Amino acid sequence: MLGYLAFGMALIISFYTVLFAIENYRQGNRIGFWAILALALAGAALPFYLLFFFE
Question: Which residue has the higher pLDDT, 44 or 30?
Answer without folding.
Answer: 30
